[in-house]
Task: structure prediction
Amino acid sequence: MAKRINPNPSPFPSREQVLAFIAGSPEKVGKREIAAAFGIKGSDKIELKRLLKEIEEDGEVEKGRGGLAPAGRLPPVVLADITGRDRDGEFVATVAEWDHAKGPPPKIRVEIPRGGRKPSRPAPGIGDRALLRVAQEDGETGRYSGRIIKVVGKNKADVIGVYRAGKDGGRIIPVEKRSQGREIAIPPGEEGPARDGDLVSVSLTRESRLGLPQGRVRERLGSLGSEKAVSLIALHLHHIPHFFAADTLAEADAVKPVSLKGREDWRSEPLLTIDPPDAKDHDDAVMALPDDDPSNAGGFVVTVAIADVAAYVRPGSALDREALMRGNSVYFPDRVVPMLPERISNDLCSLRQGEDRPALAIRMVIGADGVKRRHSVHRVMMRSKAKLAYAQAQAAIDGHPDEISAPLLETALRPLWAAYEALKAARDARGPLALDLPERKVLLNPEGGVDRVVVPARLDAHRLIEEFMILANVAAAETLEQAKQPLIYRVHDEPALEKMRALGEVLASIGIKLPKEGALRPVLFNRILGAVAETEHALFINEVVLRSQAQAIYSSQNLGHFGLNLRRYAHFTSPIRRYADLIVHRALISACRLGSDGLPSDVSAGHLEQIGEQISTAERRAMAAERETIDRLIAHHLADRVGAIFTGRISGVTRSGLFIKLDETGADGFVPISTLGADYYRHDEARHALVGERSGETHRLGDPVEVKLVEAAAVAGALRFELLSEGKSRSDMRGATSKRPSRRAGLPGRPPGIRNSGSRR
Result:
């Protein structure tokens, strides 16, 4: 309700007074509220009406539903699209309908209620359209905050695509696979700053059953003039921030190297880094020595030292806010989008050979059986003795040292490998999930195009570092639990019951029976994988087992890690590229009283749960962006090979058709069900197959096939194939089913049964 300014008759208010009253009102006001506020009565109301009309015609106020408001001010309730996050990690929205002749739309900071209680409805996200109650922020003209009244769905008006200029306007080629073939016409004058080949954001202005939908270019996102820019599509499509805010960069540039004060001096310790050959930052160093304690004969002292990012990135700082907003670094074949500026990640926190660097270290004593006996946490200053690549370290152990690794062979490398042999025995006894799926890597040429796709060799050097990191992650979680310090776990729940039922049906189709009773453990899956290891079903079953697993996430609640078969697990080893690890570092600093820059005392488990949800979402976003970028690069690479024949395997089965993964490149493409032949095919979801209604011909997940490339849409990363191979006949399927594995060929021994009780481990 408008506040009464003058209860007694007085001189008529000036234009400035009326404007000040309208501007000071939190909501729109009308003539009645203004008259009441200034005590205007009788014939003066006619003069007020004239004044208000004059002010409106001069453009100083706007009239709409509910009354008058200063020009450019948003109404109290607006329909808005959540478009991204600000530097504080808060959601930012823009008005869904805006007259761009007035300039760019104002940004609305979306307030999300905080607290430990679990929300009753799904949290809003980027791309959602919502009804907001907005208000101008105190002392900030043109800046708004808003609270969500209701999420009304996804914003379907925004499309990201490539602009193609024409004589009578332009066209937009959408970059998403599901929008392929649905171009958008851009009438003359609606292209804005876009030039041919630019990546743009488009707002649909008209849709019709006849002709192309029409749109207006809202924003030019960048040029796709070279293949090196192909990752730009994924960055914008998934709203991944890739430019650091000015205050973040200024804060990073102002950081000074930390001193030895308050740290243990470990600069003489034989710590070294082992990384990929093209690594730009080195955030973990390792060492191992035989334990000289007579009570631990054959044991080792293993040390993992991790870059002390917490020393430079303080809670609540600009660096911290941006790191939380990003959640993690994102890795594309043509670029890396780091979580932290290079001044931090590639300089001050990179454990460079021969240079003093602060680190947080965990020293672990293990027995000859590889089981950890005890551990301790240290804040140190270290100096890496060497920088080795995986292949380089492996070659030295295999008898081919070079001038760098040779001096380290006896003093550093052999003790590392001896400790790894013990850890490997403990790992085998623990029995983590042992999937065997090839991991491909795309190598680019100097122009940014695909040179070749390789499957890098898995070396013991890789496994050694993995086991050392897992051991340190477990030790970090144990320390924090013992100190009753809140933390973010890396959790991986056991497979859901419905997924286990589907797996059982797939296994039954190849003659393997899945037990239905008993506790669910990774060893069950390992026995299944071992049973098919030397058969034609090996890759197929590995894929199906992988799809049966839950997705790993970050959480303040400990659900255990099913895949690693660990009761507790927390990411500690990569704070340069994962925000979860930075939280764990701060928690360790607080729990072990290693400094004043630890986790703030007022941080609750509920707040950490919210952070866990946010960075889990960021991780899924990064994985999707990385995968889609590789798809686009390979589609561009194969665009001039349309008509060529390839071998591959069926990697997915849907009602619409078959997904095919090529053997040569690992590229994924699609065979529409309408092109499979004259028969009518039905989707057998339980068997992951398409089955011919008349012929019984079956195309099943994992089957080897031969296909012809029909179309390659590089912008969307979409490949379309024609299937050349025939499916399996009914007799083939009966034969496969009747050839049940014997006790020797099948699951060795009697595997434990399955129980899905929903218990948290």
